[in-house]
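User: Sequence recovery, please. Input:
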């Protein structure tokens, strides 16, 4: 135990490190742990669970959605908070639908999402101007 009342335990099980921090705050032990090999910001949810986001500051917890508000048919604003009491990071994020992978069998005419093919074919602004000036 260090002078600040913190204990660090480190376990190695098949090269997957687990760190546990025990910290005394107002006579209460706060325990946080993290699997260092599991921290990845771009993991795929293979079990179809809810999308998860690791706290960008403490990297020991998954951010929890506290509230959300539908701003538009294609946009939802979410308020997130880190459950780690020593971190308590809060932020606002967006969930946005940006393009269509497979069209709906019952489309809503008011919703116009481009397909991925349309996005690939889209030209950048002023492409014609650049080509014309190259020939001069």
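Assistant: Recovered sequence (136 residues):
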């Amino acid at each position: 135990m260090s002078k600040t009342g913190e204990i660090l335990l480190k376990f190695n099980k098949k090269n997957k490190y687990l760190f546990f921090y025990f910290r005394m705050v107002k006579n209460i032990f706060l325990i946080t742990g993290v699997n260092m090999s599991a921290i990845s910001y771009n993991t795929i949810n293979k079990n179809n669970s809810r999308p998860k986001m690791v706290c960008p500051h403490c990297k020991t917890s998954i951010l929890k959605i506290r509230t959300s508000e539908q701003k538009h048919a294609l946009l939802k604003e979410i308020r997130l908070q880190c459950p780690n009491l020593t971190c308590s990071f809060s932020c606002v994020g967006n969930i946005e639908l940006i393009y269509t992978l497979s069209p709906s069998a019952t489309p809503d005419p008011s919703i116009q999402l481009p397909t991925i093919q349309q996005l690939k074919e889209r030209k950048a602004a002023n492409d014609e101007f650049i080509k014309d000036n190259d020939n001069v």
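The longest strand covers residues 16-25.
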